[in-house]
Design a protein that fits this description.
There is one protein chain. The strands form two sheets. Strands 3, 4, 5, 6, 7, 8, 9, 10, 11 and 12 form a ten-stranded mixed beta sheet that branches. A two-stranded antiparallel sheet has the order 1-2. Strand 1 and strand 2 form a beta hairpin. With 297 residues, the chain is α/β, with parallel strands linked by helices. It has three domains: 84 residues, Winged helix-like DNA-binding domain superfamily/Winged helix DNA-binding domain (Arc Repressor Mutant, subunit A), CATH 1.10.10.10; 99 residues, D-Maltodextrin-Binding Protein, domain 2 (3-Layer(aba) Sandwich), CATH 3.40.190; 101 residues, Periplasmic binding protein-like II (D-Maltodextrin-Binding Protein, domain 2), CATH 3.40.190. The chain contains ten helices and twelve strands.
């Protein structure tokens, strides 16, 4: 028994006439009659009582009509569900983020936009340190990561898309002598205990530039993969934190922010994912995020 046999049978049952059913199905009447006859032969008995003017269902035909309608409805439901999955309208997107990605606004804007266009897709978000995001993606624990650009994102299996670029600012306690200056220079950071993100390793541009400019007077006192920890260390007076500009939105008692006059020092936020992405929902998210970035939204 094939699905087309059920469709043919339902059409004849609903029309009560082979000619009208053939027109509805856009096939010739002899071919329809042959298919119905083949179905009856396979099932072992008549499904219709044929008269000169119309056809009526037998008791077996009445039963088959109910079952055939259920089967065809389920097939249509399955077809639509699979088509939606193919378009990425359903499925799951797991997003990992470094803490400062929240304050950039890019990730939140992407998530809200995707929720509006794909309301039936499941979104899971979790905070993951920058150095752990590549491993989490390759291990299949997350699909997408928002992270400061760092040396771990150079893995050939990882796709990297630019998500934002901001100036570097200094966060420091309000009673620090440098807090009296509205603008700081790199040279003013000499011998100061600095607070950096773990992502700013020795190969990362910010660390390289500071080491070149300050030489032996470059002093990293603390590192952390947590945005709140970086800011808390600075607010406690334990060091000067180098942070991306969007973090100045965070209001912490005793903490102030100052501009850093160093155009070569910037904070790059990137979105990382698998180079070969099998998930349609994830692919739809990536395409949407890339499009919004290209259009400046």
């Amino acid at each position: 028994m094939e699905l087309r046999h059920l469709r043919y049978f339902v059409a004849v049952a609903e029309e009560g006439h082979f000619g009208r059913a053939a027109e509805r199905l856009n096939i010739v009447q002899p071919a329809l009659s042959m298919q119905i006859k083949a179905l009856e032969t396979e099932l072992g008995g008549p499904l219709f009582i044929r008269t000169s003017r119309r056809v009526e269902l037998t008791e077996a035909g009445i039963l088959l009509l109910a079952e055939a309608r259920l089967t065809l409805e389920q097939v249509e439901h399955t077809r639509l569900a699979v088509e939606r999955a193919m378009r990425g309208e359903t499925g799951r997107v797991r997003v990992g983020f470094a803490g400062n990605a929240i304050f950039s606004g890019k990730m939140i804007a992407d998530l809200r936009r995707f929720r509006k266009t794909h309301p039936d897709a499941e979104i899971i978000i979790q905070e993951i340190a920058p150095q752990q995001q590549v491993e989490a993606i390759l291990a299949g624990r997350i699909d997408i990561g928002y992270t400061p650009d760092n040396s771990t994102t150079t893995d050939p299996q990882i796709r990297v898309q630019q998500a934002g670029n901001w100036e570097i600012m200094i966060a420091l306690c309000d009673d620090h002598p440098l807090a009296a200056h509205p603008h700081l220079t790199v040279e003013m950071l000499a011998d100061e205990p600095l607070v950096l993100y773990d992502a700013h390793d020795t190969h990362e541009n910010l660390t390289v530039v500071l080491a070149r400019r300050l030489g032996e007077r470059f002093h990293v006192a603390h590192r952390s993969n947590s945005t709140l920890s970086v800011l808390a260390i600075a607010a406690a007076g334990l060091g000067l934190a180098l942070i991306p500009a969007p973090l100045q939105q965070v209001n912490i008692p005793g903490l102030v922010y100052r501009n850093l006059n160093a155009q070569e020092l910037t904070a790059n936020l990137v979105m990382i994912s698998r180079m070969q992405e099998p998930g349609n929902a994830v692919s739809a998210y990536l395409a949407m995020a890339a499009s919004s970035m290209a259009n400046g939204v």
